[in-house]
Design a protein that fits this description.
Length: 186
């Protein structure tokens, strides 16, 4: 099983994610994510034996308790890129500072600690709470992406975060499909 821990965006934000992607639709070389599967990854676990799911769920429960985070509101907006505007591989929209960002980061840090204790690899980069909207396969549309990221600041909306989820990613010809394996309430 290819697994990750996430906060899923609700259906109510699907259209807003699609609208944000539309601002980039003329950029060649971009591959857009499915707005109906929009999520914020707290921890990518990778290929994992299905027998480990119960211990991962326990780790998620411990992480929620450790983070001390109850249900909270998060606001999604703006654009950003990884790793930089000069070399773009991912285009994302983020959790706004002060609007769920601190809670999201605390959840990530707790999930990170708990899963590393289980033997999963430690993240090698700083956590930025984000929702991937596109991947750049080649640089043909780089100038347009740079301009949109620097000049536009869309507000996608606010949603209530009530749980974190263990998701399975299945790669298909139509792109990845994400299914919830289990969820842990905040």
């Amino acid at each position: 099983m290819r697994l990750f821990v996430s906060i899923d965006l609700p259906e109510t934000l699907t259209e807003a994610v699609a609208d944000a992607q539309a601002r980039l639709s003329d950029a060649d070389g971009l591959r857009f994510t499915d707005p109906e599967q929009a999520h914020l990854t707290l921890k990518f676990l990778g290929d994992t034996d299905s027998e480990r799911v119960p211990e991962i769920e326990d780790a998620m429960e411990s992480a929620v308790a450790e983070a001390g985070v109850g249900p909270f509101d998060a606001t999604v907006g703006g654009f950003g890129v990884f790793p930089s505007l000069d070399y773009i591989s991912v285009v994302w929209t983020g959790i706004r500072d002060g609007a769920g960002a601190a809670e999201t980061t605390r959840l990530h840090e707790a999930v990170e600690r708990e899963t590393v204790e289980l033997g999963f690899e430690e993240e090698s980069h700083e956590f930025t709470p984000h929702v991937t909207v596109a991947r750049m396969d080649d640089a043909r549309g780089k100038d347009l992406v740079q301009r949109v990221v620097e000049e536009e600041d869309p507000e996608l909306g606010t949603f209530r975060v009530e749980d974190i989820r263990l998701k399975e990613s299945t790669l298909t010809d139509e792109g990845p499909r994400y299914d919830t394996v289990t969820r842990v309430e905040l």
